[in-house]
Each structure stands twice: as C-alpha cells, then as structure tokens.
Design brief:
The complex is a heterodimer of chains A (322) and B (478).
Chain A: H1 2-33, E1 44-47, H2 50-55, E2 64-66, H3 74-87, E3 93-97, H4 106-112, H5 114-119, H6 121-124, H7 130-160, H8 168-171, H9 186-191, H10 205-220, E4 224-229, H11 242-250, E5 257-259, H12 278-293, H13 302-321
Helix pairs in contact in A: 1-7, 3-10
Chain B: H1 6-22, H2 27-46, H3 50-69, H4 73-110, H5 128-143, H6 153-161, H7 163-166, H8 174-182, H9 189-222, H10 229-260, H11 278-284, H12 287-298, H13 308-326, H14 330-348, H15 368-389, H16 393-403, H17 417-432, H18 449-466
Amino acid sequence: MRKFIKNTSLFVLLIIVIFSALLIGTTKILNNKSYFLINENTDKIVFGHSHAANAFNDSLIDHLKNLGSSGESFFYTYYKAKKIIDANKQLKTVFIIFTNNQIEQRANSWIWSDKYLNHTFPKYAAFIDWEGYQLLMKHNWKSLFASECIALRENLYFISRLRKENNYITATEWGEYGTVNKVFTNEMSATKKGDLIIDSNYISEYSVNYLLKTIALLKMNKINVFLIRSPLHKDYSLTNNGKFLNFLNEHKLESLFLDFKDYPMQTNQFIDWEHLNVNGAREFSLFFNKLLADSLLQKYDKQFVIKQKIDKLILEKKHKSL
Amino acid sequence: MLFNSISFALFLPVVFILYWFVTAKSLKWQNILLLVSSYFFYACWDYRFLFLLIFSTVLDFYTGIKISESNKITSKKFWFWTSVCINLGFLGVLKYYNFFASTFADVITTLGFKCHVTTLNVILPIGISFYTFHGLSYVIDIYKDKIKPTKNLIDYSVFVSFFPLLVAGPIERATHLLPQIQSKRNFDYTKAVDGLRQILWGLFKKVVIADNCAEYADLIFNNSSNYSGSTLVLGAVFFAFQIYGDFSGYSDIALGTARLFGIELLKNFSFPYFSRDIAEFWRRWHISLSSWFKDYLYIPLGGSKGGTWLKIRNTFIIFLVSGFWHGANWTFIAWGAFHALFFLPLLLFNKNRSHIEIVAKGKMLPSLKEFSSMLLTFLWVVLAWIFFRADTMPQAINYISHIFTSALFKMPEIRPSLVIMVLAVFIFMEWIGREKNYALENFAIHLSKPLQWAFHLLVFTVIILCMGKEQPFIYFQF
C-alpha cells in the first residue's frame, strides 16, 4: 500500500510539475515573443463586445481599429487594453462600448461561466494577473482548470507558429469588425419582444471594477477614453433604465459617454435589437467618421452635438420618406 | 460529478484513503463507506432523485426476501410481480410515458379524431435504466432460485449503488458482484496499478477521442444539409468513435476505479470495431446489457431454439427492446431494427457464432478476408449509428439520403487532420492491445520502469492538452 501511495503521489507530482512548467514556460514565451502591434497610422481603438464588433466598420473610419469581440466582458477588455497600449504608443483615443447588459448580472457569466472560461479565457490566460486569477478561482475554480488546459494547448499552438505569425491579435482573433448579412424584420421584432428581460436592479461590481480599472489605465497612459453606446433598435427595451444612468453619474463618467442609441436605423439594418448588420454598420460608420472629422472629440458638450446631429438626421429621413 | 471532472479527481482519493486506511479492518464499515460515498456521488447530480434510488433499493431488497421466504407459488409470484411492476412502472413513467402519450395522440389524430394528451415535464433520473436492471436481475434470480437473497441491506445497497457503476453501468449481476461485496477485500498492488492504468486509458478515450470527435460529429450532424456525402460519412464515422470513446472510456474508468477498491466489475467492451460480423459486434459492444437481455429476455422467450419464425420473432424483440432501452424515440427503435436485419441472416444460416475469438489472434495483421469483413461490419454499424445520433427519423433519413449523392466521392469539406491523426494512433493502439482486457493493459510492459513512467506521463500529458469542456457522458441520458 505504501509503495502504491508513494508511486501514485510521485506520478501526480510529476504531472503537476510538467503542467506547471509548460504553463509558466508558454506564458513567458508569449509575453516575450508575441507582438500586439496594430497599424502605426491607427490612433483610435474600439474595445467591447459584439455591439462593438458589429457596429464599427473600421475600413470606413479613419485611423481606427475595431478590436471588439463577441461576449467580451470588461474583465478581459482590461487585460487586452494593457497589452495593446503597451505596444502601441501612437494611440490617442480609445472607445469602449458601454451598454446596459455589460453591467447587469449576465455580465458576471461573461467573466467566469463555463462557456466563457472555455472560449474567451484561453486567449487571455497568459496575460491575466494574480488578482484576475483569484477572481476566476473564487467563482469557478472547477472550470478554470479545464480552461487552463485549453489555454495551454492554444498557447503551444501559437508558439509552434511563432516564426510564421507573431502578432497575437490576428493569430488568436483578439477582436475585429464582424460583418453580418442577416436581416432583422419587423415581424421578428414583434414576436421576440418577450425575450427581453429587464434586470435593472443588479449591477455587476466585478465588471464595473474592471471598467474603472481600464479607464484609469488609459488615463494614466494619457489616452483619451470614451464610453460609447452603438445604435439600438427603437423597440429595444433595455436602454434607458435609471440604474444605468445613475451609474454614470455616480462614477462621474457622463462626460465620457457618447450615446448613439437613438440613431435612426431601419429594422432591416439590424441583426436583432442590439446588433447592426453590414448595412447598418456601413451607415453608422460613415456617420461616426464624419463626426470625428468634424472634431467631435474636441467639442465641450459632445453628447449635445451627437443629439443635434441625430435629430437632424431623423428629420432628414422623415422628409425623405414623405 | 463526472469521471472526467476535477470534483471526481478529488473525491476518488479521499474515498480511497478512507477505505484502505480508516475502514480497512471492518468489512461492515468499508461497505458503509462505499454506500455513503455512492449516495454522495449520486446526490452531487440531483439529491432529490436519491430518494427514488433508495426506494427502488429497499423495494427489491424486501421483495427478494419475501420471494425467498414464500412457500406458495402464488405468494412468490405476487412479490415477484410487485417488484417487476413497480420497477418497470417508474422506468416506464419517467422514461417512456411522454413517448407513448405523444405516439398515441399522433395515431388518434391521423385517424381523424381530436386528441390532447398531457405530457410530463420531468427530468429523467440519471442511471435509472441501469439501477433498475440491477434490481430486476437480483429479483429474477431469486425468483428462479439461482441465488439466495442477502439479509444485509447495506450490502445489497452497495450492490445497486456502487458509485463506479451507478450512473452508466456496467449492468452487474448479483451472482457476480454481491459475493465480492460480502467478502473481505485485500489491497493488491498489481491490481490497483492496473486499475489506474485502465482509468488512464478510459480518460484518454473520453477526453481525447470522444470529446474531439464530438465537436466534428455535432458540427456535421447539425448542418448535414450543407455538406457533401463524403463529409456526412466522415461525420457518422466521427460519431462512431465518439460514442465508442465515450461509453467504453466510461466503462474503463468504472472498472479501473472499482479495482482500486478490490472489486472486479463485468467487462463491458471488447474491441467491438474489430468485429467481423454483427453477431460478434454484439458480443463485444455493451456486453453487460446484451448478456442481460439474452439471459432475462431472449432465452425465456425461447432463444434460438424452435422454428424459424420463432427465431426471427425473438431476434427482432431483443434488438427492438435493446434499442428502446436507450431512449424513448423511434430513432433508437430503428437503430435496433437495423442491427436485427444484419443479424438475422447470420442466425438463420447458423453463422452467428463463427467468430468467437478476437480477429487475427496471435498475428500482427488480419487476412484480406478478415479485413474486408471488419470493414463491412464497421460500415454497417456506422450507418446504424446515424439513426442513433439523429434527433428524429426524418433527420436520419435525410442524412442517409444526402450521403448517397454524386458528392459521395468528393473530398470532404471538413478534414480535421489532427483529429484524424489521433484516431489513427488510437486504432493502432487498440489493434496492438486487442487480445487484452483493454488496449493499454500490456502496452508498455516490456519497457524499463523509467520508460514505462515516461510513456504513462506522455499519455497523461496528451489528455491534459486535449482536455476541453467537461462533456457529459452520452450514456448518462439512458
């Protein structure tokens, strides 16, 4: 029995040593050998989840790179931002997508649920600090182990291709503009209204914490940061609830907030209530580009300017339809 | 608690240490520990259904005693049928009620009448098909005077609920497992190491083979209309390896785990994809279920004795019931029927026992004839798996009809080279180890100790690197 216990313990110990060595080794290599460079002419970046990925067609917006990625929570955005701003000193402005769902309860699951630990975490595993690991371990230690295994596999795969491709952003799909041709219809909008569940009483302190950390990090690096809400369907009911706006007030973030939710899009320019399709993204990106060219970011009351432009556009569209 | 989860990796050593260090001196306490651990293991899934398991256990325990104590045949029959009806009643209501109710409604509606049936909205208790069959075999064996009932409820409860086999078998017999539970177990180093090796191989099958094949099988089955015939064939082959890796992997872990506690469970798989005909396949696939149906259904019906029609009837009954045991869906029945069709000619021409020994025993390679028979049998089994995997009959039929198009000979659109390479290594290892209980049993045995360690560490590292999301075992749903 003693021999069995001794040999089994030794085997387990060796496994732990091999696993730890591989993990530490790949983490070191990734941190030292991979690059996070974006085009040197790019001085503006968009971070965020699918709203960002679907709304900003960066080929139509001057000097901007869309690094939005579906289901990305502020937790992962923070670690992404750390790497990107470190490697790209030319950056001047960062837009972070900010909508209700990112600070509601479901935002927690985007950090540590099984699904996101399996899909999102492995791309960031090598860059997450001890504090981040503690948070993940506290909430889902069981899945974290399996996700570490996935991360290790993906890291090894990336390392094996280092000679061919050393840009981590493109190699691991850290985020990009996502073209979707699907069309939302009035019929779909009417039948799916029941799917909207308003959960305005809960704010995810973890997401908020990482959003604030990201903002502080960007400010520390003298990068202008803006929170931005992309166009939302007029029937989308999870927009203007009190908690959301109170949150901005409480954290003195109103001046950073650029709200495009009322942009007059047609239903067929959406994929669903929250995401723009290729046509919607095209129209919005051109509009956004024009605003930037007209020095929106240098204006004192940016939201007022946006509202004026949107109101004007609503009137123009009304005239056209008449 | 899945066998491939961290929870189980913590649970198993704790129970093992308590078993051999704390309770080792008393058989009674060892069995109590096994029972408590088994109930904890089950409760981790859903504690509410634990009461059903306990009820079923107590029912069979007492009816077993009553059957044995009854002097009159009517009294024996009463207790026997009480147990059978209640056991099958639970299984029938929880697993099959919705199927029968909706089928009945469909038939009535087809006949032009209006019919509304109420369906149940309940989860199927995990392992119910397995522990019900444990209990039934015990009661039937007592009724037929094959065994004497145990008077110890703890021993009997361990027989029904022993955690390695509780949720997905092997389906044990009281004649095999109960005497082991009732007698003192001694720690055997060689057996324990062998148990760990079998667990390692089971994990490899589940995590590396089944879970990786599942990804592509799901992708192809869920979008079958978008792919060419050749891709659909590949999808079905992936599913064949998924279900084999999944279920035989589970069985290997169960057998290996039981061996750590000094208990031998029935072998459940014996390299089924190396079978040369369907009869051999069924002697090698889910052996504990096939032998259960053979002993408790096929032979009582008359087996292969009697006239041709009786043989045909019995064959169809056993295959259809076997299919239906897997789930309340026409697809499972079709799967059973498909196998019956291929088995019948063998039975009628008395060829169903042509291949008892493993193929190419003592040789490195099979003959051309053996290879063609294996390939043909495998393809037939793969075709049948399409019914098993499909959600509905129309989906299965569509899938098969899409296979047989001109695009059957095109290069598949999906070619996961890494998975195919891993599969090739897996088939090679299974082939090399086919004369053993499991492929890894003697695989590195001729190597020096350090190389053996290195080999097993390599297998474990591959498992870790291929580990993904914990996928539930397919047979948990049955």
